[in-house]
Amino acid sequence: MATYNGRRFLDAQLQSLLDQTRTPDELIVCDDQSSDDTLEMVTAFATRAPFSVTAFRNETRKGYRENFMAAASLAKGELIAFCDQDDVWRSDKLEKVERLFDQTPALLVHHNARLVDTEGRFLRLFHPKDRFPNAAPPLSIDPWFFPYGLCQTVRRELLDFSHLRTLAPDFYFEGEVFAHDQWFSSSLVRWARWATSTTNSSTTGSTAATPMA
Which DSSP string corresponds to 167-209? Predict the structure, then answer.
């Protein structure tokens, strides 16, 4: 999980981790110098979580791109699920994703997500249900599309290629390299399944977090 001034939404996301039918093995949190009490909330959560919670505060601001990559590099598990501070995971997210990894040689699994407004009202799915096949071999999907990080889980072995990310410029933002989700999904194997999480937005640009009905 990468955090920055996330206290407004963090409780809901942390609770959704507790509610998982397949409990996380660990939670790694990299905080990008929040000025609110985000890090204190994570520390308090660690005292009651039934799994390991480790929090780090960056010495300097990294921005979300490097913050997510830093968190991933610290994970010890075989599978790494990117966790946004202002989302809510459906309770069977990790269970379903892990099952796919067990059943296939996939290096990356991603799913759909429900977009809601600040009151939790459903707006739309992130992606049309028929956008992807159930399985896709390398380099077979539109290279200009990538599922958001909140929808991705990757095998740890993909981190071995992270040093090559500096060679992948972000064509949308001059001077930046690919973010974590662009890097893993645009360059590597993808398998698409099910809507298993909720993400949040509003027409004003503010965010909120609510679980799927």
Answer: G-B-TTSTT-BPPHHHHHHHHS-BEEEEEEEEEE--TTS----
